[in-house]
Amino acid sequence: MRDLPRHNARLAAENLTVTRGGVPILQGVSFTLNPGEVLILRGPNGSGKTTLLRTLAGLQPPLAGEVQAEPETITYGAHADGLKATLSVEENLRFWASVHGQSDITNAVEGFNLAGLVERPSANLSAGQKRRLGLARLLVTGRPIWLLDEPTVSLDVPSVQLFADAVRAHVAQGGAALIATHIDLGLEAASFDIGPYKADPATASDPAHSDGFDEAFL
Ligand SMILES: Nc1ncnc2c1ncn2[C@@H]1O[C@H](COP(=O)(O)OP(=O)(O)OP(=O)(O)O)[C@@H](O)[C@H]1O
To answer: Can you give the residue ranges of the ABC transporter domain (predicted)?
Structure first.
């Protein structure tokens, strides 16, 4: 069983303003994610969930406010699977594990029912199988804070269950997860609704902080 550094799995957002294409999308976002917690990120399409997750993950700077988390505690599961197409399932997991200084992929293979697929190039997986492999990578990072963007897209019901089980096991070991999803995962979790944090359109983009181009998120 993995031994996650319990005290590291805390993330706090302090009065965050997040932007997309230089335009403020959310402002005044504050919340805390504690070890052992699952928080479901709620908000309609286009409300800024991806933008917030990317900011929390350190992939883009906030326009204002602060993200507090210990270094190298966060792993971000994006919309895109980010798999290496020519590598097999096992090679993908071993590669990802080595990037994070880990070596054991057993939990990842078993936890996402990949044993029968280990030798298959990831390019030849179905959409749901790719998604399972993408999620299995979470288990080889050794990182305690999972930030996940629509993790169940393409998953069938049994696979959603595998994912929910993985999250349960993760938080039972002191991990934490913030999950943007529109479906009920059957998890014991609080919700964080970003609706009240919609940025005031009058808060014009600050050119000093504008990215200056039309961002495309991968
Ligand atoms: N390339 C872009 N440049 C600037 N703004 C964009 C771009 N793409 C999307 N936006 C806008 O940024 C806002 C926030 O988008 P974001 O992807 O964070 O929302 P979301 O809540 O994750 O949506 P969904 O539930 O549909 O995934 C939306 O209003 C969207 O229209």
So the answer is: 11-216
